[in-house]
Amino acid sequence: MAIKRTHVYRLYPDATMAHVLDKWFDYRRYCYNKALELWNTIYSEYRMLVSPEILAEFKKPKEEQQFTEEQKLFISRYYPTAALIQKKLTASKQSWERQISSRILQQACADLGKSFKKFAKDKALKVKNGAGHPVFQSKKAKRQGFKLNQGVVLAKEGNHGKLTLPVPAPYKGEWHSIRFSEVPKNAEFGTVSFYREHGHYYMAVPYKYEMPPYIHKHTGKKTGIDVNVSHFNDAEGEHYFLHKGNNGAVNLGRVYENIKHQQRILARKLEENGQIAGKRSKSYQKARIKLQKLYERAHRMQDDAMHRYTTHLVREYDAICIEDLDVKGMLAYEPRCF
């Protein structure tokens, strides 16, 4: 039985490949939004033209549905699916789109199809806080990304890895390999996700192992976890993961003191003569970026501590009981300036 383990690498592209990645991030967002707009249009037409007989068949379990040939033809033309959306977008491609890998469009349509399936399933089962209706993606989102399921080559180069992206056939510009942080694993991998966050580039590779890289040894130990807002309690004591804790695994006091200091600087640069400045200065943008990096550092320190803690629990205990508590609902909203 194959076991999947995803490994995230930091990418270090040169100026040429950074421009290529940025262009592909924008294209993926363009494809997803275009596909969602087309999906909504086709579905509106479908709802106007569909007959009560087809709707009645759709309400039955899948194995009991029986459509006539005429109904099947109608469904194939008007009922939106990922394959239909991809076919229409591919047929209407513009010349500039052919300079970019076509697999980005395929994956964007596939992701949209999965989102609608999850939304429809949760809605039918009346799942509380289930998946919402897919929404348009914003270019202001802090994370931008795309996926490739073919053509990605990972190789070893010294003490790090070398990534080669697929070159689109009509592309005539420069093309380079991209160095990434570690040597790749010697295992088969699936669809690779690329994303940009806080100005850095990353690659998430889902490896497929025939045998798990780590085999749990039975210890005969059990523990329970009491979930609090800022810390966890277990058999070994309290473990803090927010800056309020001074004796926990993570001491973020100094980082958050720097965040407070940088927020004051940003607030002063936001005002001119006692009024909110309409135009942001270059010094304001520099202060904003500094604050953003501090928040990123705090976030990564918390994530690292949480991963270490959960790994320790899984390796040391055979049975783990966790309190069912809506911690997110207990947290107070903390405004952030970016």
Structure write-up:
With 338 residues, the protein is an alpha+beta fold. It has helices at 15-49, 52-58, 69-78, 82-91, 102-125, 253-270, 282-316, 327-330; strands spanning 3-12, 143-148, 153-157, 160-164, 178-180, 188-189, 192-197, 200-209, 222-227, 231-234, 237-240, 271-272, 275-276, 319-322. Strands 1, 2, 3, 4, 5, 6, 7 and 8 form an 8-stranded antiparallel β-sheet that branches. Strand 9 (222-227) and strand 10 (231-234) form a beta hairpin. The protein starts with a strand and ends in an 8-residue tail after the last helix.
- Indicate the structural class: alpha+beta
What distance separates the N and C termini?
45 Å
Compute the gyration radius: what is it? 25 Å
Which overall shape is indicated by the principal axes computed on the Cα atoms? globular
Question: What's the SSE pattern?
Answer: EHHHHHEEEEEEEEEEHEEHEH
Low-pLDDT parts are none
Number of strands: 14
Count of alpha/pi helices: 8
Helix content range of the residues, please? 40-55%
Overall pLDDT level = 85
Query: Main sheet?
Result: 8 strands, antiparallel
As a percent range, the share of strand residues is 15-25%
